Amino acid sequence: MKKTALTRYQRLEAAGLWRANPDAQRVDVIVSVGEATLTITDLRERVLAHWSIAAVARANPGQSPAIYHPDGDPGETLELTEDEAEMIAAIETLRGAVARQRPRPGRLRLVGVLASAAAVAGLVLFWLPGAARDHALTVVPMVKRVEIGQALLGHLQRVTGPVCDGPGGEAALAQLARRLPPRRGVARFLMVRGGIEGALRVPGGVVLINADLVEDHSEPDVVAGHIIAAHLRAEAHDPLARILEEGGLSASLRLLATGVLPDDLLRAHAEQLMSAPPEPVAPEVMLAGFAHWQVRARPYAYAEDITGESTVALIEADPFAGTAPPPPLLSDSDWLRLQEICGG
């Protein structure tokens, strides 16, 4: 069954099977859990039942699928499969919190109240933000990632300037993108005058490339190395995840509920990207990338450090040192067009 999303009202939703009584057929439903209620709706969003969290009982603790029913009415049931682990964990946490909030005399009552408050606070502060972010990264479609990337590019271009579009340059960039595709999805390469260091990949697959990488070097292996580094950074740390981490829980909930992110968050993230140096990529990871994309490591290594002292690991372990050269990155004519894409 397919999991839905956290709504703007901080409700976690999941798919389940509901039965009104022992003689009724089980039907597919959507279950949403808030702080005090469990709401069950059919696939047309018609409400079938409201259960109070305080009155929800579990018929089979520790077993799967988890079966819940209103306290005192085991005939009406709700089944949640192990695929809905987040929903089950949330219900169990809230049931526990409600149980601990029930009045107890003297010191036991105080302990119960404090425990309940800590459980709810822990759920909100620690579990919910990560769960919302991870869920958003899973369910947000590529078209939304592309829209977010385009909006972010608008802020970046206030510093980088417009995308370069010299004659034949776009075709050369497209050829380079076909030669150096990401391991998952597709990428579109764009060249800009400045504002970024090396190459930068944003949500949706766009890779921004600083024109200095083609204008100041005689070989395309240098710009290819920076593109590989951008791919590897995106694999290690999803560009959209970085934005959501900066925006916190509210950004994840807003993305799940509306499919968009606040413009001020994107503007702040663009400023952070342009002011902070790129995350370093370990030499062994870079070498694996050079081997995968069949690119020589030495030109990139010497471009990073002309002495080779700080990049000696890349130089000595170049997967194509002393062997037949890898397939060409670009033809000579395409490389010349790429060098002129920003007008020389």
Count of DSSP H/I helices: 12
Global morphology: elongated
Q: Topology as H/E string?
A: EEEEEEEHHHHEEEHHHHHHHH
Distance between the termini: 55 Å
- The count of β-strands is 10
Low-confidence stretches: 1-9
Q: Main beta sheet: strand number and arrangement?
A: 7 strands, antiparallel
Derived from helix and strand composition plus strand pairing, the structural class reads alpha+beta
Strand order of the largest sheet: 4-3-2-1-7-6-5
Strand content: 5-15%
Helical amount? 40-55%
**Using only CA atoms, what is the Rg?**
27 Å
- Average pLDDT works out at 86
Element layout with pairings:
Layout: E1 12-19, E2 27-33, E3 37-41, E4 47-52, E5 56-58, E6 66-70, E7 77-80, H1 85-101, H2 106-139, H3 142-160, H4 169-179, E8 188-192, E9 199-201, E10 206-210, H5 212-215, H6 220-236, H7 239-258, H8 263-275, H9 283-293, H10 298-304, H11 312-316, H12 332-339
Parallel strand pairs: 8-10
Antiparallel strand pairs: 1-2, 1-7, 2-3, 3-4, 5-6, 6-7, 9-10
